[in-house]
Amino acid sequence: MKFDNYMVLQFPSKSCNEAFARSAVACFAAQLDPTMEELGDIRTAVSEAVTNAIVHAYPDELGTVTVRCRILKDNVLDIVVKDKGIGISDVEQAKRPMFTTGGADRSGMGFTIMESFMTAFELSSELGKGTTVHMRRKLSRRQ
Known about the structure:
Layout: E1 5-12, H1 16-29, H2 36-57, E2 64-72, E3 76-83, H3 91-94, H4 110-117, E4 120-126, E5 130-138
Antiparallel strand pairs: 1-2, 2-3, 3-5, 4-5
């Protein structure tokens, strides 16, 4: 697929890097001149995806999280968040609202939020090999 611009970030699965990833993607998306609401949705979806990778993919050790963004035709922002962690045993169950493996302090709404804020959302995972969240957001063209 052709793209106009791209970026790739790679960082350790430390919670302090969630804000960095969210802000970097928002800065990259700014070239599409999104509305404040669109930018907020993008930041929230990226925050959820990166937090899931940090909290769930590497529960007992640090690993690597990769975020790739591309600008596609027709003002579409393409975002992939990938880890090489433990994976998800049942992807369909994990996508259900309120389901979590993170204990009482987790809401289980991450995938639901990502899906609701994006134009397209895909989740794939393989046990022992990691998880990939692929999101797209078509942004409105402002005058």
